[in-house]
Amino acid sequence: MRNKPSSFLKPFFKKVTTLFFPKILKARKSLKKLINFDSSTDYEFTISTIESNINIKGSITLILFSACILASIGLDTDSPAVIIGAMLISPLMSPILGIGLGVGIFKKELLLNSVKNFSLAVALSLLTSTIYFAISPLGEPTSEIIARTKPTLLDIGVAFFGGLAGIIALSRKGLSTIIPGVAIATALMPPLCTSGFGIATGDISIFLGAFYLFFLNTVFISLATYLIVRILDFPYTEIMDVKRKFRIHRTILLFVIILSIPSVIILYQLVSEYRSKIEIESIISSNLQNSNTKIVNWEIESFDNKNSVKVFLFGKSIPPNVRFRVDSLLQLKGYSLDIINLNITDEEKNRLTDQTRKALLSTLEANRLIERQYYNEVDSLKKLVNFPYGDSLSQNKFTSELRALFPQIENIFYTVSADKKQKHALIIQYKKRTSLLSKRFIKNKLESYIKQRFPSENIVIAEE
């Protein structure tokens, strides 16, 4: 009679269980001991610490104002060190932790006080940063500003785990050194001041993107606080029945999911753009780069619903067949090819250091928008009547077309001499935030055009 398979398996499983089960139990106890922080939780200390720092008044208001100015200066000057300093002294964290704690222990007074002071802090910060950027002589969107306009799912992770570390540290009397790191990681003040920049400059996309990042940080720090409060079993201030708890949990979950959707979409778009850039870089480097041609830089440009890849290079010109092949490959991805040859001699090319190359690329980037508008509109300028002897209607047309060509121009004034031997003046008044580099570029373009358009006239361009 054959033995059943189970008769062979039972001794085997018994032996495995006897051998490994004690080790599993020991590992489980060690893990539980490692992550067990319930015994050292001081409920009263945590609640009193958060409650005492919630109110935005007196010296806290001055600290908030100082942090806001520091963050605005750091963003305006593209200085990470100054921005970090603003993060460290910002008092925004306490009201946010208060919101999570108020919901977690269901203490209405704490929740309402936290929301009130948080709203006050946000309003003061927005007002301060808006005023700063409105009067700032710089006022250009720096890389630090742009970096805070496209929040993704990764930023949610930073806010959540930063809040997690913050509330755990506050619930331990000996872990106060963690708080500065949490303040830097969660970065509440910089996106709020970036929103102020968007208001001051009238750029709605910067305002919405930065404020969305700030709101994400706020919500997920509060969520992390709420979860830790419940995990640590903080006592409720009111008796909570099961239905009420379920309703609160469902509301929180639904709100968090809806709030996270845009960040998921933005992350997907950024990943798609990154992959597209890798493919484009591969096409450019494998086809255009050789011993006779050096690629300085390339960039993707979108204008009038058309995407193009602009390549800056020096050396020998690209043969037409190679240009056509690269353009065809890019067309498959929805881009056109735009090659800009930089007239640099071999001697100059050898002396082109990394610093010089960076300066050159910076200048090209600053001039890119103006140059693009110039070449798109230059044909329409050829239809202008002969300035400066046209009538007022012709001058108005000239003024309107120059404004269309150069949006940085606010007004144009003419002083026409009765004697043709005397100089005529074209006085340009720029908009307030036009940089010196842009003014110089516009003036050079206007001088070149007027010399070609009116070669017999003696016209000078002046700036007001």
Tell me what you see in this structure.
This protein has 464 residues and is mainly alpha-helical. It folds into three domains: 43-238; 273-358, Alpha-Beta Plaits; 377-463, Alpha-Beta Plaits. Helix content is 66%, strand content 10%. The strands form two sheets. The chain has a three-stranded mixed sheet with strand order 1-2-3, with helices on one face. Helix 3 (59-77) packs across helix 6 and helix 3 crosses helix 10. The longest helix has 47 residues, at 242-288. It is extended and about 90 Å long. It starts with a helix and ends with a strand. Mean pLDDT is 75; it is low at 377-393.
Poorly predicted parts: 377-393
Q: Helix fraction? A: 55-70%
> What strand line-up does the widest sheet have?
1-2-3
Q: What is the CA-CA span between the terminal residues?
A: 111 Å
C-alpha-based Rg, rounded: 32 Å
The string of secondary-structure elements, in order, is: HHHHHHHHHHHHEEHEHHHEEHE
Mean pLDDT: 75
What is the oligomer described by this structure? single chain
Strand content: 5-15%
**Can you summarize the main beta sheet?**
3 strands, mixed
Count of helical regions: 17
**Shape label:** extended
Query: Which structural class matches the secondary elements?
Result: mainly alpha
Q: Write down how many β-strands occur, each being a DSSP E stretch of 2 or more residues.
A: 6
**In total, how many domains does the architecture comprise?**
3
Essential attributes:
mainly alpha, 3 domains, 3-stranded mixed β-sheet, Alpha-Beta Plaits, extended, 464 residues, 17 helices
Ordered list of secondary-structure elements with their pairings:
Blueprint: H1 5-35, H2 43-52, H3 59-77, H4 80-89, H5 93-105, H6 108-135, H7 143-146, H8 153-170, H9 178-186, H10 189-201, H11 204-231, H12 242-288, E1 293-303, E2 306-315, H13 320-331, E3 336-341, H14 346-350, H15 354-381, H16 392-405, E4 409-415, E5 424-430, H17 436-453, E6 459-463
